[in-house]
Amino acid sequence: MLLSKSCIYGMRGALYLASSSNSKYISIKQISNDLDISPHFLTKIMQELTKAGLLESQKGPKGGVRLKKDGNEVALVEIVAAIDGMDLLTECALGLPGCGTAKPCPLHEQWADTRDEIRVMLEETTLTDLARKGKEGNLRITADGTFDWLPKDN
Amino acid sequence: MLLSKSCIYGMRGALYLASSSNSKYISIKQISNDLDISPHFLTKIMQELTKAGLLESQKGPKGGVRLKKDGNEVALVEIVAAIDGMDLLTECALGLPGCGTAKPCPLHEQWADTRDEIRVMLEETTLTDLARKGKEGNLRITADGTFDWLPKDN
DNA sequence: TATATTTGAGACAAGATAGTCTTAAATATG
DNA sequence: CATATTTAAGACTATCTTGTCTCAAATATA
Ligand code: SF4
Ligand code: SF4
Questions:
Q1: Which protein residue lies nearest to nucleotide C16, measured between its Cα and the C1' atom?
Q2: CA of A17, closest CA in chain B: separation in Å?
Q3: Does some domain include residue A116?
Q4: Judging by DSSP bridges, how do beta strands B64-67 and A55-58 pair with one another?
């Protein structure tokens, strides 16, 4: 699996926030409900994103989470880094430790290229990109495809 | 992690075989010893490759495993398919089930491209490619870099 | 202030992956 | 044939990931 489930949930949660008007806090309960993700689990993951500085949160009624920066300034790689870490984008394809290409493995040439493709993709794709695309095509971010992308005006 | 540890060990084991003269069986014990992988664990993995038809085996003294086809006919993707399955190359980046691009997720465009890069890399790289490259550059396939790539004449 | 709501923190359980060990079956060799 | 070697099969344990639950702290609102 390329990304852990936690990371995928984090992405979907952040994407949800990026598709909303960012002025107000949204409760994780509502997000988990709309995205059909276990509330407790999503809470834990959103907490990680908050700790990482990607979200800000407020407790109590009318509380919730929201993006700290504007969605077009948040690349996917930041979410991956916060939850899965950068291992995928720095590690060896053969799992060998501590290579800086000094003593590479036979797969290095091919893997370094492929790894870069992944990295560039994650670096160049922002939450706003995905939210816009999602709204325009009414694309799914839930298993059953029931997700409304409201408000459309973001 | 892109590939499971089992898959990586399977690759390294198969690469070992491709770097040897393919006429005789090599014991898994020797392979695990040279590659510094747990013998029991590697045995289990090599069994999977044998069941998948990539290796053939013989029991008893002078027994062991060897490649069933010539190394230049074995692409990495076959090993991945045998051990991890094709999920990585067919599944959704957001973990959503059963998409055939009919109802895509917002990441689809980017991910489909990246996924293809990975697939092509795995399809176009053969064991012989890696063995040749490894011998020419004396590259490492063990954590500590102690691996000899003998015989050089393959 | 009292209450309900919501995040924060962390214990706990379930499931998947990784790794170990035991026993059986096959087979080369003396 | 007897024995040592090696794969085959699968039980078992350990570790990591995923998911659930409980309680505390903060806070909006009546
Ligand atoms: S060579 Fe590339 S893939 Fe191989 S160990 Fe070094 S970094 Fe990893
Ligand atoms: S769109 Fe592409 S990435 Fe998204 S669900 Fe369909 S296949 Fe998967």
A1: B4
A2: 14
A3: yes
A4: unpaired
DSSP for chain B, please give it. --S-HHHHHHHHHHHHHHTS-TTS-B-HHHHHHHHT--HHHHHHHHHHHHHTTSEEEE-STT-EEEESS-GGG-BHHHHHHHHT-SHHHHS-TT--SS-SSSS--TTHHHHHHHHHHHHHHHHH-BHHHHHHHHHHHT---STT-------TT-
Number of domains in chain B: 1
| Ligand 2 closest atom vs CA B105 | 4
B48 found inside a domain:
yes
Measuring CA to CA, which residue among A151, A36, A129 is closest to residue A77? A129
Mutate to test the interface with B, among A8, A36, A140 (most CBs of B within 10 A): A140
Taking the C-alpha atoms of residue A97 and residue A109, their distance in angstroms, rounded to an integer, is 16
Structure-block tokens of residue A31: 């997000």
- B83 CB burial (10 A radius; 0-12, 13-18, 19+): buried
Selecting from A104, A118, A134 the residue whose C-beta is nearest the C-beta of B114 gives: A118
Q: What is the CATH number of the domain that holds A16?
A: 1.10.10.10
**Is A148 among the domain residues?**
no
pTM comes to 0.94
**Nearest-angstrom CA–CA distance, B107 and A123:** 13
Query: Does residue A73 belong to any structural domain of this protein?
Result: yes
pLDDT band with cut points at 50, 70 and 90 for residue A22 = confident
The pair of structure tokens assigned to B111 is 């991910």
Domain residues for B116? Answer: 5-137
Joined tokens for residue A13: 């949660």
Tokens of A101: 């290409």
Any idea which ligand is nearest the CA of A92?
Answer: 1
A107-129 pLDDT, tens digit each: 999 999 999 999 999 999 999 99
| Residues A43, A62: Cα–Cα separation, whole Å | 16
**Across-strand partners of A75?**
A126
The model's pLDDT over A140-150, given as tens digits with 9 standing for 90+, comes to 999 999 899 97
